[in-house]
């Protein structure tokens, strides 16, 4: 079954992936339709070539539809199913992600309050553990992590952290030091006393993983990224996931850094707005500037520079913000209120 979404066609099954790739030598391939007929059409072959399908994929199939959201599937060397999506599909997903950030910001205070009520429970239930992870996602903007990825690459996210990663403990703060995605060293500083205390409490529990919970039979289980996403779907909204917390935090970091970026641009002949802002946020997230620019920073924080007066006005508004105790997590911080104002408006 096919439905149209924006430019792309979205299928409910894989029946459209009917062109099979067949090896015919060292990194050379030919293609056949489901009927067995060899693909010879120049337009189709050029489209397949532009997909740049990795030569080491096996059981690879390509869509017969040039506008399908999924253009190709295959299995990599580790047996994982991989997808290649249409460029327009990626663009549409990005637009939708940033559009729903307004709804996310509006829903965040209530969700924070709910999570704070759950972490006050006396025992480590699944809800309590997931609520703590969500508050830490919100506080730090860190990746949630994935057990399979961690096992294969020896890198970590929040749900895959070990007790050994808890460093520099004191009465009201804690540091989490670990190797993140792409082998980058990461240090997360948690200066909120309540969150820090709970992280330290988790570190005292049995098992290797930091975040765990007990079921009704008193059996301990590791918290997974699937658990956290299910918690977000149930307690916040089906339309949100762990990634929305990272996008929100990234845009928050970007807005906070606008005055510094503005001064750097003013004092340099070579620095550009987009690249300088992206580098600032990348330093906070442990991402590359390119990834931050494409996937995490709200576009309005880039386009505001196109209107110099609007940009200066926004810079002054950021500078005028008073610092606020970050332990007051039940409402939006001043910078978050401003962020919501910026991304909600027609012009910054």
UniProtKB/TrEMBL annotation:
GO terms for molecular function: DNA binding; DNA topoisomerase type I (single strand cut, ATP-independent) activity. Residues 28-76 form the DNA topoisomerase IB N-terminal domain. Residues 88-313 form the DNA topoisomerase I catalytic core eukaryotic-type domain. Pfam families: Top1B_N_bact, Topoisom_I. InterPro entries: DNA_brk_join_enz, DNA_topo_I_N_sf, Top1B_N_bact, TopoI_cat_a-hlx-sub_euk, TopoI_cat_euk. GO terms for biological process: DNA topological change. This is DNA topoisomerase. It comes from Alteromonas macleodii (strain English Channel 673).
